[in-house]
Each structure stands twice: as C-alpha cells, then as structure tokens.
Specification:
This is MUT7 Exonuclease. The chain is an alpha/beta fold and 693 residues long. It is 53% helix and 6% strand. It is built from 33 helices and ten strands.
C-alpha cells in the first residue's frame, strides 16, 4: 500500500468522531471487501488497528461497544479470513460476553455454516465450552480434517475426547450410518471420505501430531495389528519369503498378551497349519493353552525336542542352496565388525573419514507395520573395500548420553556426509536420512549439507534390463526381484538374499544371518559402483554417469545448467563444492604450451582435440583404472580432465582446482571450449597443430 494512501486513511480517522463506528459503516456499505486478497477495506481495517495502538484513548466500552460488537459479529461469518483477526482485535471481541458469543456460533452451526462456526470458535477460543463431537462431525463429513485438527490443537482434553469418539466409530460392530443419518442434506458431503479406513488414518495422524498414548484408541490399534498379523501370515505361508526366526519375532511383538489378537492368531494358525504345526507355533508365541481347540491342545502336550532337530537339519540344507543362488560377501567373516562401544567406534571413524575413501552406507530399523511414529535406526552399516562396520546405534547413543556427550555421534555422521572428499554410496538415501533424523534430532539437516553423495537408486532407474553376461532364459528366474536386489542382479549377476530384510533389528544379540545380510546390503554398493564406473555403456548409462543421474533425479529444471559450472554436480543432483571461498577472479591467461592435462579414458576425443590446439595432453588407455589419472597428475603436475562418477574420487586426490569434470554428452569441440574458458587458455593461430599429432 502506498505511503500516500496510508496517510490519507489516517487523516480520515482523525476527522471521525467515532472511528470504530465509521469503519463498520464503511464495511457494511462496501462491496469489494468480500473479495480475496488485499482489498481497500482490508487496508483501511489494518491501518485502523495500527492507529488504535498509537491512540490508546480511542477504544470504547459499555453499551456503545456492545452494539458495535453485535454488528461486527454478524459480519464475521461472511468476511475474508484475513479480516477476522484485525476486526476481533479492533472491537475487542475477546472481552464480549462469552454466552453471547457461544449463542452466535451456535446460530451459525444451526444454519449449516459448520466451517464458519468452527473458524470463529478457534479465533475466539470458545472450544472448551462446546461439544467436540458435535462441532467436528459435520466437518469430517465435508472432508475438512485439517480444520478439525486446528480446532483441538491447543486443548489436550478435547484431543483425547475426539480420539475416543473416532476410535468408537472404528469399532467393527459400530454402524457408521448412525453418525451420518442426522446430516442427510449436508452440502459438500463426501461419504467416500468417511469410512473406517480414512478415519483410522486420521487417528494415527492425530496420535502422532499430539503425541497421545495410542492405548487411548484400542479399536484402531487392534485393527492395525490384525492387518499386520495377516500380512505376516502371507509373507511366511503364501509368499514364503520370511524366515522362521523373523516371523516368530514379529508375531510375538505384534500379538503380545492381547487376548483378542491371540484368538485371531489361533484361527490363522489353523487355516495355514495342521494341528501339530499350530501347536508348535502356539507354544512358540506363548498362546495360553485354554485358548486352543482340543486337538491343538493335545498336540501341544505331545511336542518334543525332536522338532528343533528337524529344523536345524532343514536350516543347514537351506544355507547351502542359498550360497549358490544369492550374492555372497567377498570378504572374510572376521572383517565384519559389530561395534557396541565408543572405543571401537572411534577406530572405525579413523578409517572411514579418510580423503578419497569410498564408503557404502546403509541403515536398518525394526519394521513399524504402519504403527505411530517414524522408525528409529537400529543399525548403521559402513562398508569399505576390505571391511564392514555395523554400528549398534541405540547402544552407542545411550552410552554417549550417559557420558554427557550426546553430540558425539551426530558430529561424526555430519562430518561423513558433509565431506566432499569422501564418496558416500547409498540406495534411496532420503528415506535413510529421514529415519536417521527421527533417531537423533541433531541430524535433521544432514540432507541439506551433504556433499560427495552417490544415490544408486537414481542409477537403477536407468540401468538397461540385463547386464551383458545375462542370457534371456534367465529373465523368468529374476522376475520377483526388485529394488536394490534387482540392481545387484543386473550388475553383479546374483540377487541379494532379502529374507532378513523384515527382521526385528532392535533385538540383541543379532543373529548371524542378520549380520551377514546387513554387511552385504552395504558392501554390494561398492561393487556396483566400481562395476558401473568401469563399464557404464554396457548398462545403457552412457559414459557420463553424472549427466545421466542429475538430469533424471533432480526435480528442478536448472540441474542441466549446473553441468557447465566449474564444479560438476554429484550424482545426487547436488553440486559438490569444497569450502566456500570468495568468488575468485578468473585465472591469469596462459598459452596452450603452458597447459598440461591428463584425460580420463572416456575423454579421448577431447584429448585429441586439445592436442590439435597445442595443449600438452596425456591420454589414459581404455583398460587403465581411473585412479591412474591421479598418479600421473601428481607426478607430472598435470590437471585431470574427467567426467561422471570418477570425478568424486579423483578430485580428492589432487590439489584444489586440479581436477575438472566436463559434460560427456557434448561433442569434443564444445568440451574443449569449456576447458579453455575455465582455465583461461588463450589459443593463437601459431598454436594450432604445433604439437605432433
């Protein structure tokens, strides 16, 4: 609003005998104030609000104010949302008679203006004197759950009442039509949004938002546990992808001592097993014998130790067949370290936080099966070329807290993720990082600060269907694989064994199978990365992996432009930069004869083009490892020219500014121009063909 208009408005107030009555008269007769946005009526109202603060003598009291309050109340249900607060403040509606306000809101409600009644109740803080079920029911029928959340937001007692009401509606024996019957003619009624499934999701959202004890909602919690129970039976007896140990762990923690769930467990056991099998599982899951049918109870008495012997024999055969069919860790078992003390962990960090290091990172947590809250990380895996470290996060956090050094673990993890000289490999990293933030709030900004990160989920979306050595007959075998397991199969030839994926990762001690699974999940990332760097074309990726990753993964259209910047973006779509310095001046101009480079093996065309312009060029051969470029650069003082993923590793092995990433999707001429411009190389006619071709 212009200063001139504000001054004019203020002069107008000064001339009025009663500015409050004047504003009301203006709003009542004006037609534009009901529109959206900042109308003239809005400008005048907010200006009066400020003017009153500067002229405390203006506010009125007594009968005159009451009359104005009555007029303004009639207006509030039609006025734009941005005028509510200023008008309530100007006419001191918080001081008005509470019964009068409640009556007015009740009148709105009876007219069917449920949303307006709720908003006004929130603004005037009338909720404690209202019936929460009555106020919220029509809003839920109109799919206004957000307004319902706001209505109870500041009142824990109302939150509990609302949750208990919703939980009653979610009881399978409750007829939801009993609720909807009274609102038959309701405008904007959305019956498809008012059912047990939608209501139970709302209950979980409210439980989490207001941090209420889930025991308050037994119907919703039991129904969710029952769905988990059915899912676990499907995984074990239909899909057959869950080990016995895992299955028993989850069944026990899901059912617990709950008699209702124990009853459902017995029914499911009888559907999937014979009486002997049902008895064995009932014993394992501690189902009270009196809940079992007679034939199962009889079998329970006959059970002997023989069962365990049979299981052990089966397990041995199973292990042998697994080795043939699944990816196996290429490092010895003694190189997998399970760390539970800070002394061991500090030794691990010394090895991990080395410039030039490539680290496979993964995390495991206990499956929540849709219960309240984000999962907390129970295990952090860090894989290096020769060893894997499994960090017992709950134990380490507990120890650090006991020693008064809560920030110890977050500090290490932030150092790892923010160091551009260390390449971190992951698969679906943002999910891992949000669980990490839920485990330790100090890590909530890790994703914003991370550098030198390669998320192989982005590669996965572009890898061609079969790796070079796979024949088409193998397609049928591989079909069920998905996610990282499928990528491992494409690139390394065998899928990951995912039977331990849904383990209870919080239970200690971890079983041997869990330890091997966790180590494999992190280590396979190193092998995939190495393989893709050596031969990206075979997997349909094109030699510039950075280009293929950034373009596809980043949602922002500017991702492509970043490629022409001085620092190439990391494959996660984030620009990798060292410590930020002041914007530097372009380097002093040099001639091609003073400029010497080593070209990585995917840039031979660029190397030949630069040589034509008189640059001193060394080319890597096709079979050379990328790291050879760093050796030559250090020995002969050359600048490395590379592209894609190797840039991450190479840049940390030479001085700052001595490694440059070019865009591999461009032709040699464009690449050469990019290099010359960046290093300020001035080419004269005498330089062209000055070197032996």
């Amino acid at each position: 609003v212009s200063r001139q208009l504000k001054e004019e408005i203020r002069r107008g107030f000064a001339r009025l005998e009663d500015p409050l009555a004047g504003l009301l008269a203006m709003l009542e007769s004006s037609s534009d104030w009901k529109g959206k946005g900042h109308s003239l009526g809005y400008c005048i109202t907010t200006e009066l609000q400020l003017w009153i603060k500067e002229h405390p003598a203006v506010p009125q009291s007594g009968t005159k104010l009451k009359k104005l309050q009555a007029r303004v109340l009639g207006m509030l249900s039609q006025c734009p949302a941005n005028l509510l607060d200023p008008l309530i403040s100007i006419y001191q509606l918080h001081t008005a008679d509470r019964n009068y306000l409640l009556e007015h809101v009740s009148h709105l409600y009876l007219q069917g203006d449920y949303k307006e009644a709720a908003i006004l109740s929130i603004k005037l803080k009338l909720q404690p004197d209202q019936d929460v079920e009555k106020m919220c029911t029509p809003l839920l029928l109109q799919d206004k759950a957000n307004l319902v959340e706001d209505y109870v937001a500041e009142y824990p007692e109302l939150q509990r009442k609302l949750l208990q009401t919703l939980d009653t509606w979610c009881d399978p024996s409750f007829n939801i039509r009993d609720v909807t019957r009274s609102y038959q003619g309701l405008s904007r009624y959305k019956p498809e949004k008012f059912n047990r499934r939608v209501l139970s999701k709302l209950v979980f959202r409210l439980l989490e938002r207001f941090n209420v004890d889930p025991a308050l909602c037994p119907n919703v919690i039991n129904q969710r546990h029952l769905r988990t129970l059915n899912y676990l039976f499907y995984k074990r007896f239909v899909e057959k992808t869950m080990t016995e140990e895992n299955w028993a762990d989850h069944i026990q923690s899901t059912v617990g001592e709950n008699r209702w769930l124990q009853g459902h467990l017995v029914q499911s056991l009888l559907r999937h097993c014979d009486a002997r099998g049902a008895a064995r599982w009932a014993r394992r899951c501690r189902v009270p014998p009196e809940m079992l049918p007679r034939d199962v109870a009889e079998e329970l008495q006959k059970l002997h130790i023989q069962d365990r012997v049979e299981e052990v024999t089966k397990a041995d055969n199973y292990e042998d067949s697994k080795k043939k069919d699944y990816y196996q860790l290429p490092i010895p078992r003694e190189n997998i370290h399970f760390l539970q003390s800070w002394e061991e962990t500090l030794q691990c960090w010394e090895k991990v936080l080395q410039p030039g290091q490539v680290v496979g990172v993964d995390m495991e947590w206990k499956p929540s099966f849709g219960m309240v809250g984000k999962p907390r990380v129970a295990l952090l895996q860090l894989a290096l070329k020769d060893e894997v470290f499994l960090l017992d996060l709950p134990r380490l956090l507990e120890q650090a807290e006991a020693e008064g050094e809560k920030e110890k673990l977050p500090r290490f993890i932030q150092m790892l993720y923010s160091d551009a000289a260390i390449t971190k490999l992951g698969y679906g990293m943002s999910g891992d990082l949000s669980s990490l933030a839920a485990t330790c709030s100090a890590l909530k900004d890790t994703e914003k600060q991370m550098q030198g990160v390669v998320d192989l989920l982005a590669v996965d979306k572009q890898v061609d269907g079969l790796s070079p050595e796979h024949s088409h007959e193998e397609r049928g075998v591989r079909q069920p694989e998905k996610g990282l397991s499928l990528l491992v199969q494409h690139v390394l030839g065998k899928p990951l064994d995912k039977t331990e994926q849904l383990s209870n990762w919080e239970k200690r001690p971890l079983r041997e199978e869990q330890i091997l699974y966790a180590a494999s999940d992190a280590y396979c990332l190193l092998e995939i990365y190495e393989r893709l760097c050596k031969d990206p074309e075979s997997f349909g990726l094109g030699s510039d992996l950075t280009e293929s990753l950034v373009g596809k993964q980043s949602k922002k259209p500017r991702a492509k432009k970043q490629l022409n910047k001085q620092e190439a973006p990391s494959p996660s779509g984030q620009e990798c930069q060292g410590p930020r310095t002041e914007p530097s001046r372009p380097p002093a101009p040099i001639s091609p004869r003073e400029f010497s480079v080593v070209c990585d093996n995917m840039l031979q065309g660029l190397g030949r083009y630069l040589r034509c312009l008189g640059v001193d060029v060394r080319l890597l051969d096709n079979e050379d490892d990328h790291r050879k470029a760093a050796e030559i650069a250090r020995q002969e003082g050359r600048v490395i020219l590379t592209s894609g993923l190797p840039y991450q590793t190479l840049r940390s092995q030479v001085g700052e500014g001595r490694c440059f990433s070019v865009n591999c999707s461009e032709k040699a001429k464009e690449q050469a121009l990019q290099v010359l411009k960046h290093f300020n190389v001035q080419v004269s006619p005498s330089d062209i063909f000055s070197r032996c071709q």
